[in-house]
Design brief:
Largest sheet: 9 strands, mixed
Helix content: 10-25%
Structural class: alpha+beta
Number of helices: 9
Radius of gyration: 23 Å
Length: about 425
Amino acid sequence: MRLTQCKGVPVLALLVVLGGCADAVSRTVAPPATKDITAAPEAQPVTEERASLTEIARLIAQSMDNEPARQHLKRDMRAAPFREHKLELSSYLTSKDGRALLDRMSALGGGEQRVLGTLSKIRPLEFYVPVASQRETWTGKADVLVVSQLDESEPIVSFDERGQAVSLDKKTPPSQPVLSIVPVETNFRAPMPAATSRNARDLNGEAIGTLEPLRVKTSNMVACDETCTGGGSAGGTTAISPGLYLEFSRILDMKEPWFRGDPEIEVHIQGPTSTAAPSYGDDRSCSGEHAGDYRKVFDQNDAFWEGRVMLYSEAEVVAFTNQFKDGFHVLFWEDDNDTCTLKLDTNTLVGVLQSTASATGTVALKVLPTANWGLVAAAFIGTFFSSAGPWLLTNDDFLGVAVEQTAAGYSYPGNTHVLMDGRTLNGRATIIYHH
């Protein structure tokens, strides 16, 4: 983490300035308080889909009251070629490997046809052990819980191995290992390659573990620093393609509850796409774990990330600058839905950006096509995502817009920007234009 002693901090009339180098915890807003959620009854109406998921979760929990069944499932999860060893539930249950679990569920739930019929009423689901410490220590022993949730605004529903409803806290995982069933966030069409991945912290094969990419120090692949942390490329010896880069990210609230596993952090460049509608903003680029451009791939799984990942190429910057003068947004998201495809409440986002702009005077960045290609603050605020509508199942979580730190009244040595969620500080970043 690039931190040194703080220098003088500018004072803005709109903000109270904090003097310390550490993350300004007192300037953040704590997540809304949540009470312990019991599995039943639910306060809101229970839809057919929610009732079906509750039944599937109960049957899986009851099926875990058997040592061979637990060991079989642990083995199959460990073999799943994804970082958190997720299984796509429907595909797994109807596969050869999932037959053992389906048979147990069918015996408990009135037959295979009834179980699969219930499952068909639910959107695609993923099934895994979301808490890393549990995934890396559970050896298939008893006392397993199963938790499920559809939309993040809903209560969680949980069962023990007897099929009894249990109360779990949304904020803190229990000590017992938990199997989670939630809507799919993973791209199951893109498994991690066996040749360039290794399973880590799996108790020599006794636990599930966590699948990690191998870090290779070669000039034609990914250049790493000494620790090779974070993904992307970090400060190596290879030539850097010109463009806008993220080199450090610290997020205070990642807005991903424990039972949904690792967050899906993405950074989106958003701005106008047509000179006929210069105030309309939409996605122009996306960087994240499953970005389509290999230069924009990075994987942030905890509060800190350091490396070098492209956000906007020089060609993209030039094309944008030739058309538009008011800059673009660099927005950080926790994407719960289709990768690099945001689903959100349009009006809510615009209101958040306007709140930030009123406090800092800027919510956009602009690259000046001069000799030194300077990166400066700008003033674009657009309306977003005109296609948003009632078809949305969930909202993705907005983490913050990158604002030049001096404009927001902060000074983090080594960093260039802070992440503002409205008027709330939610992190800091280093964003640099290399030319």
